Amino acid sequence: MNAPQDSPSTLIFKGLRFANAGRFEQPVDVDHDLDRADTGLYGPQCPQVIGMMEQMLGQGSLPSDEDCFFLNVFTPGRDSARRPVMVWVHGGAFTNGTGATPWYHGASLVERYGVVVVTINYRLGAFGFAHLADHGGDDFRDSGNLGILDQVSALRWVQRNIASYGGDPDNVTIFGESAGGSSVLSLMATPAGTGLFHKVIALSPSMSQLRDRNRAHEAASELLVAAGADARALRHASTETVLEAQRAVLRRPGGSFTAFAPTPGEPSIPDHVADAAARNPVPLLIGTTKDEMLLFTMLDPQFQKMDDSGLLAFATARFGARAADAIDAYRRVRPDSTPGALASAMATDEGFRGPARRLAEARVRAGHPTWMHWFTWETPAFGGVLRSCHALDIPFVFHNLDRNGVSAFTGDGDDRTALAETFSGAVTRFATDGSPGWEPYDLERRTTMRLDSESATVEDPEAELRILWEEPS
């Protein structure tokens, strides 16, 4: 057991193995000697190409290995208290990330709210989401969903063992952001996840990344061509060969965003994730930030140099003959925005807010408990250009404002504290008793918690834009 100095009342167990698996093989559950398993070190992350966001999150120095089946437990004590359990699934576009990222450190939630926090690794990119079954036969069954099956294996570990870490296996909440948000929705969609969790929190789920079976087949073909190998040869290639082929696929224009993601039509995920998550009765809290896409578009010349004619073309591709009306609506709701910023707002609604809202609506129609939040606090960092961008909410969910790199992303203003208390309080309240503290979403009032320096519920936020996207083009 190795608890850091900044967490005197939290017991921390790092690098606990939950599974073993060979490349492109399904995970096999593992239980080691739990009293001796902690090494004081995080387990390796899945091999990946570390990007700018991962460097900011503080994971650039962590070791990598295909044997990455490790989780971490943060708990008030190894006793019989049976506390609520919160299992975090990290994001990173299904190609990056680790449960060991400093921003995901669970001590603050443990000490403030008395929950047990678990953070997990899973296989990424080609190692976790290359749909090779069409190319290699039964030996590669479900290879397009190995990352999700790893998450299932970690949840089975929680069911078997978390009581000995002071947690309640009958009160488990899974939560994640971005690809982690889409992962927890995928866990709602897999029959293998049934009974392993009891509540779900999806933060900014990258639902537009959830591909269909045809795209999964196409991306696997691209991977094999890039590697110059068939599926069986790729199984025995070096880690760097697989990574280099993955890089080549991700550099391709157009479809790189969907190259590696959960695959429907497999035994593990029979149906499209959104449809299955809509039918799952497990309570769901879901939401996005106001300006998700600014994290990506602020560095994209296409958006930075966009003029009115470029905005019209961008809007026409999405709204057809209604493009001019759509631009007028966005200008009314987002005044003083450049053409590129307006296009980014459209992309945010197209890729994040719209899919999340449609899922919430489908669940309401099915009679399943659903709550929505909307994170609108704007960071002053980088001159304020990122506004309320993607991933900005993470340190507030964990109440980790003092972790390395956070202030560079959020600034160090005093107004952050109240927001962190509100958001972390809401997610832990939801994990504890099934309600975040405001009314569930419905199709009349559309009650949504707006999370900001002064948080409050709002009804049908930016209704004009919601209606715009609901009308046929």
Describe this structure in words.
With 473 residues, the protein is of the alpha/beta class. It has a domain at 11-282: Rossmann fold (3-Layer(aba) Sandwich). The chain has 19 helices and 12 strands. The strands form 2 sheets. It has a 10-stranded mixed β-sheet, with helices on both faces. It has a two-stranded antiparallel sheet with strand order 2-3. β5 (83-89), α2 and β6 form a beta-alpha-beta unit. α6 packs across α10 and α10 crosses α15. It starts with 10 loop residues before the first strand and ends with a helix.
Structural class: alpha/beta
What's the total number of strands? 12
How far apart the termini lie comes to: 59 Å
Radius of gyration: 21 Å
- Beta-strand share of residues: 5-15%
Structural shape? globular
Percent of residues in helices comes to 25-40%
CATH superfamily of the domain at 11-282: Alpha/Beta hydrolase fold, catalytic domain
Could you give the order of strands across the largest sheet? 1-4-6-5-7-8-9-10-11-12
CATH class category of the domain at 11-282: Alpha Beta
- The low-pLDDT segments are 1-6
Concise structural overview:
The chain has 473 residues and is of the alpha/beta class.
Q: What brief labels describe this structure?
A:
alpha/beta, two-stranded antiparallel sheet, 19 helices, 12 strands, 39% helix, globular, disordered N terminus
Topology readout:
Elements: E1 11-17, E2 19-20, E3 28-29, H1 52-57, E4 70-75, E5 83-89, H2 107-113, E6 116-120, H3 125-129, H4 133-136, H5 146-161, E7 167-177, H6 179-189, E8 199-203, H7 213-227, H8 231-235, H9 239-251, H10 273-279, E9 284-289, H11 294-297, H12 301-304, H13 308-319, H14 323-333, H15 339-366, E10 370-375, H16 394-397, H17 406-410, H18 415-433, E11 447-451, E12 456-459, H19 463-470
Parallel strand pairs: 5-6, 5-7, 7-8, 8-9, 9-10, 10-11
Antiparallel strand pairs: 1-4, 2-3, 4-6, 11-12
Helix pairs in contact: 6-10, 7-9, 10-15, 13-14, 13-15
